[in-house]
Automatic annotation (TrEMBL):
GO terms for molecular function: pyridoxal phosphate binding; transferase activity. It comes from the Bacteria. Its cofactor is pyridoxal 5'-phosphate. This is 8-amino-7-oxononanoate synthase. Belongs to the class-II pyridoxal-phosphate-dependent aminotransferase family.
Amino acid sequence: GAGASTGQLAGETDVAAGEATDLFTKFDSTIAMRTNLLASGVDDPFSLVMEQVLSPTRAICNGRETILLGTYNYMGMTFDPDVIAAGTQALADFGSGTTGSRVLNGTYQGHKECEDALREFYDMEHAMVFSTGYQANLGIISTVAGKGDYVVLDIDSHASIWDGCAMGNAEIVPFKHNDIEAMEKRLKRIPEGAGKLVVLEGVYSMLGDIAPLKEMVKVAKDNGAMVLVDEAHSMGFIGEHGRGVVEDAGVLDDVDFIIGTFSKSVGTVGGFCVSNHPKFEILRLVCRPYVFTASLPPSVVATAATSIRKLMTATEKRAHLWKNSGRLHGGLKSLGFELGTDEPQSAIVAVLMPDLERGAAMWSALLQEGLYVNLARPPATPANMTLLRCSLCAEHSDEEVGEILDMFERAGKAVGII
Ligand code: PMP
């Protein structure tokens, strides 16, 4: 039969003239993976339902109170009373949705205030809010780097970055993860005079490791490239003011674009790009994922703006989140788990699993204990790894981190991982 790779030829080989081809044949290997996994008796890791959400760190799943260790709610802003109040007020004052594009009827006062909050947060000239972070990458990358331009990017980049490259039709030049020399070699091979965009992430979300931005941004600039950094997983947390790894590395003024999202530390949904480029505002007219979609609802931009302003001064929360990340990382390491990084580098601690079957069994055992983590598998993960990704929240208490470690110890022994 036609496998995933030969599916496109099915019309010529297997199917008689005039007979319809099944366009779903290409999903057969994924269907088989899912069927096999469920046959092993584990809970389905890809269809968990949060029946009630009690706080940034607790929810009811399968009727049981569960500690959440697999959300992107790093700063725990989702139930902040000021954030809730701002959203409620905007819902009452401006209605449930804008029913239009940012460039037509979809720019409300709240969208401007949200962009003001971002410009202040990053101390930058321009801010553009998109409906998701995915669309921010898709839009900025595809619009800035077009046919004939080159995008040099880390091989472990997020799907939204790859999709932005594909949509823009630029030449795509990947380099080995976090490898400064490999990046430099690729840059030097690009023909003289061609447009160059280097795309990096502050924190890589699968292993929770950070990029050597100080060195990389310098190499990019020395080779005449513009630089975009996706700070989705560091905003609000890393850097003195929470501006991300770019701030921590001291290269905030050297990057051309920062991409971010409201779906992680900010605690709602939406995406953005901030920049000091003098011509930045023209993007509002030429960036298709900005123009051809509806703008965010008023309640969402109001919660985002309030949350962003509070994150500017959230020094104590940042300190507690670093403490949580250090304790979980150290605790899991001493229990004998293999981790994605030697030292804690972010709020993400990735626990390496030997294979998908044991990863799913461990995920399931943790859920039985009352702990939710993210199960990540290829193609989202690098090097075919199966990972249990733990992401900490500034609202996890010291006691909760202790409970989490006890749960990992019991589940790890039961499944035979440690
Ligand atoms: N960039 C990175 C690095 C991400 O991890 C994500 C989401 N996981 C996004 C962008 C997209 O963000 P959003 O959820 O706002 O679409």
